[in-house]
Amino acid sequence: MISNQIKLLFFAFGIFMILVACENTKKKVTDPRVQQMSRAWVYDKVDIEGTVFPGEQMGSPRMIFSEDSTYKMTFQNMADSGKWYFIGDTLVTTTFSNPGEEEYLTIKSLTDSLVVLQGESNGKDLILTMRSLEEEK
Asked: What is the DSSP string of 30-44?
């Protein structure tokens, strides 16, 4: 006869194996927009209260968003970096240089090749359009 302690040990081991098997079948659920946003972008145009500035005229600022929720921005001889994430239909960015300050931009459109964001800068409404530079990801 098998003692109660051995039965309990086999029972506990069986439960452990079931839990491990269930854990391995779980799939990571991620927001599909993270993959769409995670690429290199260049400013196509910025519309500030009806005045449109082509990206080339602004020096073609570039932003690279990574799947690890970090970004890098280059603009002429300057660079900045920080963290990014989504809250509903809003893209939130923070810079490492100003960790407490967050910028909120409403996502008007997001595809693999184009993103349109709406927000405010210095009290003025703006619409930022960026196009993908997928080869630079």
From this structure: --HHHHHHSSEEEEE
